[in-house]
């Protein structure tokens, strides 16, 4: 059985994990089985048009995009607080949320590409400003995580990472407002939720998506934070052990020297 002090699991996190798993199953059921495809009739020709079954990715893609913002904003707030207070709790929080946010951001790019293929007839559009600003955000935080892996003084590394996070998060307003600011340079439509163009089961399923992916975010953050905290505790233990061993070596050398001097005197 794992020691409680070295495990990232607890009764609360296990309950959250089970609830999240059930929620994911329910979300997939609603998204891909119970909701209707996007099929509309042309007002003059009567021809069917719309996103058809591709619209089902809405229930995954949009919540993950919002949770990406939440994760990176959490990283930025924790980073700014760390620069002020220098507390290890804030540094671990920033690192954990950056990792979770990068995973979410990568999934946003993947699901967006899959969704775009049947709707826009292309997997990727390099001229789309929202795609490119999202890709930039992903690359910036990938660089942040790479910086975290470099061999450096932990406090100096944490300060540098915090500054990178605060710069990278400035890309989020550009992503969020890109459709309005550069409407002629994107294939993305404006927010249907903000304009209340979805309702009934579609709206319920989207809200369920926000709740479920919020739980996914909380579960991942909880475990990644605990891993980070254990890593810091291990690093401190190794430093303290190395210092204690060095002190023991010095004391042994001093004792041997003293014995040698005593022996030489007799």
Give a short overview.
The protein is mostly helical.
Molecular structure report:
The protein has one domain (12-240). It is mainly alpha-helical and 266 residues long. The longest helix is centred in the last third of the chain and has 66 residues, at 200-265. It has helices at residues 11-34, 58-85, 88-120, 129-148, 154-168, 171-181, 200-265, and strands at residues 38-41, 48-52. Strands 1-2 form a two-stranded antiparallel sheet.
Structural class: mainly alpha
Rg, rounded, reads 26 Å
Helix content percent band: over 70%
User: Could you say which overall geometry the principal axes of the C-alpha atoms support?
Assistant: elongated
* Unreliable segments of 5+ consecutive residues: none
Mean pLDDT: 87
Q: How many individual domains? A: 1
End-to-end CA span = 58 Å
Give the H and E element order. Answer: HEEHHHHHH
Major sheet attributes? 2 strands, antiparallel
Give me the count of strands.
Answer: 2
How is the secondary structure organized here?
Layout: H1 11-34, E1 38-41, E2 48-52, H2 58-85, H3 88-120, H4 129-148, H5 154-168, H6 171-181, H7 200-265
Antiparallel strand pairs: 1-2
Helix pairs in contact: 1-7, 2-3, 2-5, 2-7, 3-4, 3-7, 4-5, 4-6
Write out key terms for the chains shown.
266 residues; mainly alpha; 7 helices; 2 strands
């Amino acid at each position: 059985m794992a020691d409680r002090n070295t495990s990232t699991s607890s009764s609360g996190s296990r309950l959250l994990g089970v609830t999240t798993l059930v929620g994911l199953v329910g979300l997939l059921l609603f998204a891909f089985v119970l909701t209707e495809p996007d099929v509309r009739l042309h007002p003059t020709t009567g021809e069917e048009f719309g996103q058809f079954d591709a619209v089902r990715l809405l229930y995954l893609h949009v919540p993950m995009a919002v949770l990406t913002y939440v994760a990176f904003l959490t990283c930025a707030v924790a980073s700014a607080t760390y620069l002020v207070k220098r507390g290890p709790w804030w540094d671990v929080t920033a690192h954990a949320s950056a990792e979770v946010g990068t995973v979410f951001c990568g999934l946003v790019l993947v699901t967006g590409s899959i969704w775009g293929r049947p709707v826009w007839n292309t997997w990727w559009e390099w001229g789309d400003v929202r795609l490119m600003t999202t890709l930039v955000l992903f690359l910036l935080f990938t660089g942040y995580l790479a910086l975290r892996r470099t061999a450096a003084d932990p406090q100096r590394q944490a300060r540098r990472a915090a500054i990178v996070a605060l710069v990278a998060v400035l890309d989020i307003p550009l992503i969020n407002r890109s459709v309005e600011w550069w409407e002629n340079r994107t294939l993305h439509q404006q927010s249907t939720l903000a304009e209340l163009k979805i309702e009934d089961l579609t709206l319920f399923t989207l809200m369920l998506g926000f709740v479920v992916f919020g739980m996914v975010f909380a579960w991942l953050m909880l475990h990644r934070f605990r891993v980070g905290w254990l890593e810091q505790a291990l690093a401190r233990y190794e430093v303290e052990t190395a210092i204690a061993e060095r002190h023991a070596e010095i004391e042994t050398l001093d004792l041997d020297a003293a014995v040698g001097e005593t022996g030489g005197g007799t």
